[in-house]
Amino acid sequence: MGVRYLSYLAVLGLIAAAKPAAAQNCGPLPDCEELGFTDNVNDCAEEDRLNCPFDDTSVLCRKKGVRCEIGSILYNDLNCYDTAPDGLTAVGVVFDAVNKLAVAPSNGKSLPWGLTKESVPGLMDAGSSANSSTVYDIDGRANTEAIVKYYGPGTNYAAGYCNAMVGGLKAGAWFMPSWRQITMIEYYWDKLNNGLQAAGLPRLSSGRDYIIPSTQYDADSTYRITMPTGGYWSTYKTDRHSFFCATSYGDSNRWKQIGEPYDSKECEVGDILYSNLKCYDKPWSALEAIGVVFDTENRLAVSKELELYYYWGSLADNIPNLEACESESLATTTCATDGKANTKAIVDYFGNDGRYAAKQCNDYAVGDTKKGDWFLPSIKELATLNEVVDVVETSLDSVGEGVFFINNLVSSTVAKYGGTEGRVYVLYDGYRGYEISTYSYNSGSLEHRCVINY
């Protein structure tokens, strides 16, 4: 084991010592394996390996984990080890090797499931059937997100506590497990506690205890599950009980839990914007491309999705708090230039009914973005986009989104045409290049792309 984990300096020292010997004896260069390069390039990440100077396929892994099994200790680099490298912290014990889930040691807390006896939107009512909950309610992370969204951030209730817990990782890495997930913890109870004790960590609980899951029984209640026997009863959501916090160590979750594998860069025009609202020289698979940067001064990016056949609004309405503009030079206009403010005014006026562009942008959510982050751009913002549209279009092609637009891209800016409202500005795609058109009927079906501040 010691040979496999020689320090880089020691290995390089062996190489330095071997080269003169080879030259003096006129024999072959030393074998990579003799020098300690006994790992494969797929055994560890690029930043954790040293390549053999004679064979790029042979490497030395600085940190080499083992396959995580039920009862394995999970460390804060989201790997399991026979002998953990110095500097790592144990964060939990694996209870589901298929779905790559681990549970934290006992937190010693007793908190309510929620702050009120009310039904949380997005959660099923599992009711009195254990089979129903076990089969269908499987995603504790989704449950936790729904509960935190309903009650807001806080550590005075169980799901909020797990969501805020750092526990050697990052806030947001932990969640409150579902009933289905707790049944797996109960099934492997002794094995999990033995693993924790061997690592010098607290047990999951000190003895007979009631544990609440993130599962909702009904509007008033959740469950209390007896550990380790698995018996259960309903209990009010406002009653205080013990609970577990769990995390996933799957590859798609690593960046949210332990940080980014590559440094982000300052975004430039034409750069892909990813789901964490950052740009990278070297993209990586855990992130989703969500748009393309077109204005670095105002930090704006346009969505990768082209939306078709949405209405703008009602033909004759004068919308409060939305300035109507009359300008011959749209590229330099100072009228209604803030698309986000325009979008809010439009949505506040027309409400949640109807298929209209401003509402679609306001509701749009992709990656880590949420409702209210995206907006329908002003004509000034579209004019800025028009100046770099060729660069943007090339980047959109690279993420598979094809043509930038087909005919008219509508803005959130209302136009006065002949002194009368009832029209909006659009960016017009001519046969050669791009032109600015001064009007289009408010009730017309047009195309649009949403914009976001990064």
The biggest beta sheet, please? 5 strands, antiparallel
**Average pLDDT:** 80
Q: What percentage of amino acids are in beta strands? A: 15-25%
Overall body shape: flat
Query: Could you name the ranges where pLDDT drops below 50 across 5 or more consecutive residues?
Result: 1-25, 430-439
Structural class: alpha+beta
Distance between the termini: 47 Å
Report on this structure.
Helices cover 23% and strands 23% of the residues. It is α+β, with helices and mostly antiparallel strands and 454 residues long. It folds into three domains: 3-61, no CATH class; 73-252, no CATH class; 264-453, no CATH class. It has a five-stranded antiparallel beta sheet. The protein has a five-stranded antiparallel beta sheet with strand order 14-15-16-24-19. Strands 18-20-21-22 form a four-stranded mixed beta sheet. Helix 2 (130-136) packs across helix 5 (179-187), helix 3 crosses helix 4 (158-164) and helix 8 (339-350) crosses helix 9. The longest helix is centred in the N-terminal third of the chain and has 18 residues, at 8-25. Mean pLDDT is 80; it is low at 1-25 and 430-439.
